[in-house]
Design goal:
The chain has 241 residues and is α/β, with parallel strands linked by helices. It contains 7 helices and 6 strands. A 6-stranded mixed beta sheet has the order 5-4-1-2-3-6, sandwiched between helices. Strand 1 and strand 2 form a beta hairpin. It is globular, with a radius of gyration of 20 Å. The protein starts with a helix and ends in an 8-residue tail after the last helix.
């Protein structure tokens, strides 16, 4: 309880400084998400574990550890090669409203976050369309955010093929692919399919848009609500208040 009070007053002081010296726009909900993630990570570090059990499937009693060769080791985000930037994107389709959301995060070879962004897709005809729009929006943000050659990573194989083979016409997705090719112009851009575990930060950003009902762009950082995912991927990531 003492630890929680210390963290609570720490964020209260942050909001006090924001009200006096800044714009006074810091949100209580953001601090709540940040403190929950921060406290959870402190507990994990103390216990020697590395990831939050969000599904409640961990054993209630810790068993003695036995060394085994694990061939199903959890995958994770891989940093780009020297001189490149990676743009991880993810789209979310809302069937009931035929709309969607997208999230994107741009990182360099030093694992530093260059930019993160998320927003709403007002009209969307399916999951592939949402993913293609995420690729297009991620490219747009990256073109203005860095001069480095780009690697666009998505976890959707069908959209990856359409973006690489832009001559394939799949109605709305094909139209987005043509816009993608026109936007990149002569810029060196690769499009790659990755595992979902490699793409979880972009996925969380897309879900953030669905929860907050507004978009956002952040230079050099991410929202506190996805802080734990950023820490999992980027060892050089520093939270900026």
């Amino acid at each position: 309880m003492k630890q929680k009070f210390m963290l609570f007053w720490w964020r209260v002081w942050h909001h006090r400084n924001d009200a006096i010296f800044a714009k006074g726009k810091a949100k209580i909900s953001h601090s709540t998400c940040f403190l929950q993630n921060y406290l959870a990570n402190l507990h994990l570090i103390a216990e020697g574990t590395s990831e939050i059990d969000q599904k409640g499937k961990s054993p209630m009693v810790k068993l003695p550890s036995v060394q085994q060769h694990d061939n199903t080791k959890e995958k994770g985000w891989k940093k780009p090669e020297l001189g490149w930037a990676k743009v991880n994107v993810d789209g979310s389709f809302l069937e009931e409203s035929r709309s969607g959301a997208w999230g994107a995060v741009i990182r360099d070879h030093d694992e530093r976050i260059i930019l993160s962004a998320w927003d709403y897709i007002p009209r969307c005809n399916g999951a592939d369309c949402a993913e293609a729009m995420a690729c297009l929006e991620g490219l747009f943000k990256a073109m203005s955010g860095t001069d480095l050659p780009l690697i666009i990573e998505t976890d959707c194989s069908s959209v990856t093929k359409v973006l690489i083979l832009s001559s394939i016409d799949r109605l709305e997705v094909g139209t987005i692919a043509k816009e993608f090719q026109a936007m990149k112009g002569n810029r060196e851009v690769r499009v790659c399919k990755v595992d979902r575990m490699d793409n979880r930060l972009a996925h969380s950003l897309a879900q953030l848009r669905r929860r907050e009902l507004r978009g956002g762009v952040m230079q050099g950082t991410v929202s506190t609500c996805v802080f734990s995912e950023a820490l999992h991927d980027c060892t050089n990531y520093v939270f900026s208040t």
